[in-house]
Specification:
- This protein is an all-alpha fold.
- The protein has one domain.
- Helix content is about 70%, strand content about 0%.
- The protein has 17 helices and no strands.
- Helix 2 packs antiparallel against helix 8 (about 180-205) and helix 2 (about 50-80) packs across helix 9.
- The longest helix has about 30 residues, at about 145-175.
- The protein is globular.
- The two termini are about 30 Å apart.
């Protein structure tokens, strides 16, 4: 067996994607730029000082950031629990974590305008009313310079952790040093704690502060649950896509997809539990400063979206993903992975968009109906294309599986019982 493939990998297995990754990068990068520019043009024409554009942009950024954060969680967790089954899909998650520098740059699209005097999507606390004593009391935390510093620190930490784990994993491909696995395991404990803190505070800052009068101590867990759903659905879809292109056809089996499906099901349940717990405790307490966040989502036109999340984000996937049959038939697992990625977007949209208030004096059917939906779509596609482009660029440079991981053989032979 050639050294290129490493112990346990079939010699005919295609474990690189240089040409495929390069082609995707060349197509997706300019497409992402074009779609973002179109979204920005539509936003500039809306007459609200780009406020609606910033909300659309934040939805897209928070969505793809959740995919990268879910990938980082998966990468750090595997050595911590000494997982064997996941070795053949771990590199795919590592590749997705390489997008953090891009996402950090995209975050500047919100931070720089705020530093230059714009409120971005955070109008309520950037320009608080003179008689708003609640926000004046929170000014030590909710102010633009400190907000920008915190966001920069979050991304610096995520980039550092992701890069360190990725570099060590790729180094093991070259050296075959089994001690690298021990170093990854030793670092995973502290890293998972830092990850938990940073994702929680990032969720508080980027999303919860859109309505700075409201607070929930488990909102960070809520966002994390969505990120976990996003990564397990994404890994299934990326794996199937690569196999359609002739890659990893022997390395990722139905057994691995079965476990990804089980984890997807588990976090659908976990997300539902956290969402219900947050709602039930706040609504039962009936405190105005807490219920204010749910009122527009339950008693306005947004109530339909709330019902949609209950049915399509919880009940339907719970019923179907519970079945072993769904998780082992790849076409059905692909369908529900796509389903959950769509529902995750609806969830992020439901968090962000009710906080946008359109200026009534310029509201028209086009600019606040068709134009808004087009802006949402183009911002999402634009950020998504850039995300895919940078992940594909990384995928073109490395093996798609960690070919010299000591547990690779166990992963290749893995079976569910």
């Amino acid at each position: 067996m050639s050294a290129k493939h490493g112990q346990g990998v079939h010699p005919d297995e295609k474990i690189t994607a240089k040409n495929l990754g390069g082609s995707i990068f060349k197509a997706a990068l300019p497409a992402g730029v074009v779609f973002l520019v179109i979204a920005l043009i539509i936003g500039a024409a809306s007459g609200d000082h780009l406020s609606r554009f910033f909300h659309s942009y934040l939805v897209a950024l928070a969505y793809f950031l959740s995919v990268a954060l879910g990938a980082l969680f998966f990468v750090v967790l595997q050595p911590l629990v000494k997982a064997h089954w996941s070795v053949t899909v771990r590199r795919l998650a590592e590749i997705l974590t390489s997008t953090f520098p891009l996402l950090g740059v995209l975050a500047l699209g919100i931070l720089i305008p705020m530093l230059l005097g714009s409120s971005g999507p955070y109008h309520h606390w950037v320009h608080p009313a003179p008689d708003d004593h609640v926000l004046h009391g929170k000014a030590a935390w909710l102010n633009v310079p400190f907000f920008a510093i915190r966001v920069a620190v979050y991304f610096a930490i995520w980039i550092f952790i992701a890069r360190w784990f990725f570099n060590k994993s790729v180094e093991q491909d070259d050296t075959g040093d089994a001690e690298i696995s021990d170093r990854l395991r030793a670092a995973s404990g502290p890293s998972i704690i830092v990850f938990a803190l940073t994702i929680a505070f990032a969720a508080f800052d980027l999303l919860m502060s859109l309505n700075p009068h409201w607070f929930s101590t488990i909102f960070g867990v809520y966002y994390f649950a969505g990120a976990a759903i996003a990564i397990f659905a994404s890994l299934s879809l990326v794996g199937m896509f690569l196999q359609k292109k002739g890659k990893l056809t022997r390395s990722i089996s139905v057994e691995h997809y079965h476990d990804l499906g089980k984890l997807l099901f588990a976090f659908v349940f976990f997300w539902s539990y956290i969402a219900f717990s947050q709602f039930m405790l706040i609504w039962y307490a009936n405190l105005p400063e807490e219920t204010v966040w749910y009122q527009p989502r339950l008693f306005t036109n947004w109530s339909g979206v709330s019902i949609l999340l209950l049915v399509a984000h919880t009940i339907i996937p719970f019923v179907f993903l519970l079945s072993r049959w769904t998780k082992r038939v790849l076409s059905r697992l692909a369908f529900f992975s796509i389903w959950m990625m769509v529902m995750h977007y609806v969830d992020i949209y439901w968090i962000v968009m009710p906080e946008y208030i359109a200026p009534n004096q310029t509201q028209t059917v086009f600019s606040y109906a068709v134009g808004d939906l087009a802006m949402d779509l183009f911002a999402f596609i634009g950020v998504g294309c850039l995300f895919v482009a940078f992940a594909a660029r990384t995928a073109a440079k490395v093996n798609l599986i960690p070919i010299k991981d000591p547990m690779l053989g166990d992963s290749l032979k893995f079976e569910n019982y």
